[in-house]
Amino acid sequence: MILTGKALVMGNNVNTDVLHPSRFFSLDDKRVREGFLQAMDRRSAAAEQGEGGDVSGRIVIAGDNFGCGSSRETGARVFLLAGIRAVVARSMARIFSRNVRNLGLPAVECPTLPAAMQDGEAVELDLETWCLSVASSGKTFPLKPIDPFWKAVIHAGGLMPFLGFKDL
To answer: Is the pLDDT of residue 9 over 70?
Structure first.
């Protein structure tokens, strides 16, 4: 599986309460989606690139300890609702990576990820060879190996499809 998209670059220690503030917690998907990145000004980067603030199709590129903070399910679900294709970080909070993987979003670590990536840069995530390629530099970075179980879950599209449940 190869995923391509523009980078949505974030820093170190990005907390789930910043990614999705608790005031947007809801069972209504529209309300949940509305809260994505409201405590950060990351939508403005997409707007500056002529995308009107739309982050769908993006691949989040982050630093260390991405997704630390609370473990509310909406903090993971909002990534899917926003159309994020994958999350790649130098390191990730364990519960965050597990929550988004459970929902079918590839969340992988890349310890050698450069700090100076540009927002909007074209990237390719290869989940067969386990590497991230950055188009502008032509460089490829290896992903941290994950347990074969989680590889299978990612390739199945989430925990429920992996277990054989299709319509929930």
So the answer is: yes
